[in-house]
Design brief:
Elements lengths: L2 H19 L6 H7 L4 H7 L3 H24 L5 H22 L3 H7 L1 H28 L8 H20 L9 H15 L6
Helix pairs in contact: 1-2, 1-4, 4-5, 4-7, 5-7, 5-8, 7-8
């Protein structure tokens, strides 16, 4: 069996185990049993449980990155694409946290541990935003002086509202359509979207 396939299977088994019993309550032996691998095989791929946990987080971020890439590649106007990327990102993060059950408590508590793994994802996300913003500027939809800085600001704004979004603190009794319209207004006013 290929090395990457074995590693993927261990990560998937660990994800399910962490969701069931929590990261703190799982041991390397538990992960070996859940993945139907020996401890020796497990230690071939991972130094310790921390490495396994970070691999689980990284695999979830890769899924999110692929989804964002898919949205970026759609045949849509850049302004609509940007909004779709924002909502896809927020909804995917929320889905990841809830799908991982008791992992969600650790997700909030261990934010600095997760940040190490997020660096690569963050860089890819900023590049995706840069691409869409550049396309929008080129087509005269956005008035932006510095595309890279704007992409970074959007990225950090989204990171800042992740936890309140996941916990439902931003719903404020509004329906989805109204919330989307508020976001639309904020984003497009900030980008000085040109009226067509």
């Amino acid at each position: 069996m290929a090395v990457s396939q074995t590693r993927r299977e261990i990560v998937n088994a660990a994800r399910q185990l962490f969701a069931k019993v929590g990261v703190e309550n799982a041991t390397m032996n538990d992960i070996a049993i859940a993945s139907k691998r020996g401890r020796r095989t497990l230690y071939t791929y991972f130094k310790n449980k921390e490495d396994v946990y970070l691999a689980v987080v990284e695999s979830e971020l890769e899924v999110l990155s692929r989804k964002m890439q898919e949205v970026m590649e759609r045949d849509m106007e850049p302004d609509e694409k940007l909004l779709e990327m924002i909502f896809t990102r927020l909804d995917m993060v929320k889905e990841v946290v809830y799908r991982n059950g008791t992992l969600r408590a650790g997700f909030f508590r261990d934010i600095w541990r997760v940040e190490k793994v997020r660096k690569k994802f963050d860089m890819r996300e900023v590049l995706l935003f840069e691409t869409v913003l550049g396309e929008g500027k080129e087509r005269g939809i956005f008035k932006i002086d510095d595309i890279q800085l704007t992409a970074m600001v959007i990225h950090y704004c989204l990171k800042g509202i992740e936890v309140p979004y996941i916990r439902g603190h931003l719903e404020l009794g509004l329906d989805v359509k109204t919330r989307r319209q508020y976001v639309r207004n904020m984003v497009f006013n900030a980008l000085q979207r040109q009226t067509i």
